[in-house]
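Much of our argument rests on the idea that a fold can be written as discrete symbols. The record that follows shows the chain in one-letter code together with its fold in token form.
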Amino acid sequence: MTEPDVSATRREGTGGLLRLRHGAVDLLGSEYLVLVLTILYFLVLWPIVPAIAAPATLLDIIAYMGPLLVVAIGQTFVLIVAGIDLSAPSVLAITAVVAASIMTADNGYLANTPFAVPGGLLSFLVIGGAIGWLNGAAVTALKMPPFIVTLSTMMFFSGAAIWYTAAHTDATSIGDLPPAFIAIGQTESGGGVIALSIAAVVTVLGHLTLSRTVFGRWLYAIGANPVAAEISGVPVRRAVTWAFVISGFCTAIASILYTGRLETGSPVLGQRILLDIIGAAVIGGVSLFGGKGKVIWTLFGVLFLSVIDKSLQLLGLSQFWVLVIKGCVILAAAIADATRHRLLTRQ
């Protein structure tokens, strides 16, 4: 081989390595990274646990995703403005028991009337929105840290849900709900279509709100720099308050789906999913420091967590190890977000 041929071969090899390196960098920076990792994880696990690809398993994963995605989308709005909403589990619980007390055939406030289900659904949304407004008002008007505000409301309404249940029944939850309501959250037959349709509508509306509206641009501007946003004429207090209200609404909708699936209003509904709610958004790429996030990223994060959760169950691991592994994954995502934020602020 002549010297020019050797040089050309070397250049081709170097060019191939550079293209491969650039491809890897592009993938790591891609908004589809989590989706790619989910697919790879699924394919690697498939030969080890064939049941992961069974239709019943896939249905369970999709069913798990629906309500979690809805509440995580609400969390995404708050995270974009550099806030956090820890009150989601308590909103799930208090809305579930209050609505159940309205609809239940066992001495419910609207028992056995045509208004039972509409009244219950309305109570979900009103209470969720009201708690969201309370959180937003405390953060904006009183200048309180979102962490402290939502932690306080989480503790208060968690206790209120237990007290309310004890005041309305001798059981640990409020059951005997109308079949028309239960059908909303079921994963079998038509009920599964209803639940997935609701989750899909919330996803589309959330995406359009963040990507196609002035309000969405306000949220990103506030998360990036609230002082500059206010100087530019953005109504910071109103926008932040509405971010928390949206979070409350989304949590209330998720509560409808969870309560319909469980067929009972439970005061401990959502007690163990706070890690999943915040983790799904962070894993997807929504920044804990504000100003960055998309609904589609949250969707990928929810899918990733759902697949991991189901696969660990199929592997026969105890709940302890499931929580440990999921916690490590979420911690890794948070560390990656913090590292990325630190590097960007140095530029």
